[in-house]
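Thread: Modeling a multi-component assembly for a lab meeting

Hi all, long-time lurker, first post. My supervisor asked me to bring a structural picture of a complex we are working on to next week's group meeting, and I have zero experience with this. I have the sequence lines for every component (658 residues in total). Could someone generate the structure of the whole assembly? Inputs are pasted exactly as I received them:
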Amino acid sequence: MAGMTGILQTKRNQMIALAVLGVLLFILPFAAGALGQAWVRILNITLLYVMLALGLNVVVGVAGLLDLGYVAFYAVGAYTWSLLASAHFDLHYPFWILLPLGAFLAALAGLLLGTPVLKLRGDYLAIVTLGFGEIVRILMNNFDKVGLPWSDETYNITNGPRGITGIDGLNFFGFKISKGLELFGLQITPLQLYYFVFLAFTILSIIGVSRLQHSRIGRAWQALREDEIAAKAMGINTRNVKLAAFAFGALTGGLAGGLFASMQGFVSPESFGLLESVMILAMVVLGGMGHIPGVILGAVLLSAMPEVIRYAADENMQQKIFGIVLIAPEVLRNLIFSLAMILIMLFKPAGLWPSPEKK
Amino acid sequence: MDVLLQQIVNGLVVGSVYALVALGYTMVYGILQLINFAHGEIVMIGGLTSLFAAKGLLAMGAPPLLALLVAILAAMIACAIVGVLIERIAYRPLRNAPRLAPLITAIGVSILLQQLAILVFGRNYFSFPELISKAPIVFGPITVTLNEIVILLTSFGLMAALLWLVHNTKVGTAMRATAENQKVAGLMGIDINKIIAITFAIGSGLGAIAGVMVASNYGQAHYYMGFMLGLKAFTAAVMGGIGNLWGAMVGGLILGLVENVGLIFVRGDYKDIFAFVVLVLVLIFRPQGLVGERVAERA
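Re: Modeling a multi-component assembly
Sure thing. I ran the full set together rather than chain by chain. Output:
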């Protein structure tokens, strides 16, 4: 990595690297599309994970608040979109209302979570956020029959474990993304269009997060992470700064949630379990906490790795090598995945690409 | 009223199992300040190992009581070995690493153990043989089974034994010293690595027994059984004040009681929410947990 950073010292080389990256990112969905649309979907999900990991990184990596229930904000965004743009209530609001609304509600949930836990530190905070995530998931599971104590009538709000189907896709002022697009004879599938939308939002988040990290509040977050008491002594209002970290992380998660619902067309509580929160946390820590390129690397690695292993370790491959199917592919995939997690941490405790200044 | 009494009894039984598992979390936390995410899987391994050992022994014609005792022993040995191995391989190299690194390996180990359990035992729900009678015994308004009574008594016995061990033996003193200050304990001639390994072995052994209890009480074991149980037990440990043995016991019992008594007022679907809401409330008013002492903030 040292050699690479060396090359990237000059402005000119940086511009060239950026241009190459841009071209690669542009070609990627078409290359993946040649392999099959399923691969484009994997790309899109990876982009969502990058956004999620960036959001969680603000809370965990920059501000040092361990959050094990981050997926709850993703869920708030996804359900906001699903309830207000689907056949479930027969509401069909446009994206420019729903995406900000989902992000806003998620941020509100972040404040709601943040306020009572301000006094808690370290691992106490972790378990409360974990509990919060579980509460949100259980509520989604059970809000298909919400009743009032004084009447027997129940209302179906979230459709429970069956989830919500028939969710509207993205519509840009009359242009339906689900129809695909033909541009200069080039056929662009809906999933590829989603890719570009997600990419735009991801780049936006990267710029937003990195600007924020180097701003006044970003420095306050880092001070909070390094030493809360000293930060307080320096005149930082730790309460507001903590709440801001929660709210901003939640906002990013809510945005990603809305995008997820629009592409998937279906959401259910199953997608928002504890394991999902843990996965996003693992992306942040494995990549390199507090360091944006590291976090992106972690997110790409952890979300793409299972899919690649799934492809590489399928039954045919085992059949060819060993003559029989030794291990169910699903089990093998999780085995390799968990082993990789352990090994990376053992050999790179600070993450694969930690921030240089921490040395 | 009768319902309340019955739910209190049920709550005590479940709570005593939570307490045993919570002790495993809190002992490790007390010494390493590490959330041992894989502890729930230790409980699962205990449940599955004892199940297959008991079935094998019964098939060979052993009497149920002997089968049970040998099965418990097998589970304890298996879990102690796994626990010590996990510490040696996944946690010890990271003792001076950034704090979240061992947490991630713990999560990795947790997933790994689940997958290994699928490989070794399979994905099915296995039924646990009825080694202690589960015929209902009626005491006035309360109905219990012999199995439940044994669980309750065993848990309390084990908790008392652990407290005795920690407070009245040389090993226990060394454990407390290590928890207080590893460096100084090392200077006093305590073999830190050995003490930490012993802590893991004891915690895992208790987890193994809890696994046997859960498997026998619900009559089944499954590779995923440790997950929710571990989560609840960890919640209990935090509620009581993590790192504190009394806290884990009190927290476990209270969580079991709250969950089961709460069932009278709240629909069963919301049972898990209830536990977490109580946790949040407790921590708002007592951020250090029910029994935990307020630790001075270090600059």
